[in-house]
Amino acid sequence: xxxxxxxxxxxxxxxxxxxxxxxxxxxxSKGYSADHIRAAYRAGIRHFGESRVQxxxxxQGQLQDLTDIVWHLIGHLQTxxxxxxxxxxxxxxxxxxxxxxxxxxxxxxxxxxxxxxCLQVKLAPDPNKxxxxxxxxxxxLPELNQLLQVQIVGLMTILxxxxxxxxALELFRKLAELADYIQRxxxxxxxxxxxxMGMSDDYLLAVAAGSNLIRLGRALFxxxxxx
Length: 227
Known about the structure:
The protein is α/β, with parallel strands linked by helices. It has one domain: Alanine racemase (TIM Barrel), CATH 3.20.20. The protein has helices at residues 5-18, 34-42, 53-62, 82-88, 98-111, 134-144, 165-184, 203-209, 218-221; strands spanning 24-28, 47-50, 70-73, 91-95, 116-120, 151-156, 190-196, 213-216. Helix 1 (5-18) crosses helix 2.
């Protein structure tokens, strides 16, 4: 089925009109084709998020001519996939434990890479989500500050499904406050200026709370294939 590229373009334009200029749109391309990525790229998107290392590898192979794409791994990273992930992704946005952060740091040193990392924080109980609980993350900050091969540049969260707007806004604000606290804590190697929060259903709430990186898949790509 051909792709309605104009639909994707118009959606991106409409979303850009709703958000401040400093907010980056990441197109969540997991489950969508290389053609979807090209359409978003032609509309000015440069950040793309994939959840699986192998699925991303296929699309990255088809898109080698787009040399300024910034690839983000946003899905849970298994320890046995760290090395291929580092070779494929400039950003790993889903670092959800100290053990994983240390392993990424070690493998990055072996590969002579300096990836950007976001720390995934679990702000509310959710058995389907990975992430640091806030007390555990605070306890881990001194050790994270010692990981010199990686650039820890932000925090990421995925909210549980079914929250009210008020509850979602409160949790997004909690992540913004946590980032501010870490920034003020004086850790030289933790510069968490990226707040990755907000998806297709709640990105406006996230932006209101301080997000500067929103992750949009369905809002850009749903039903863009023409019958």
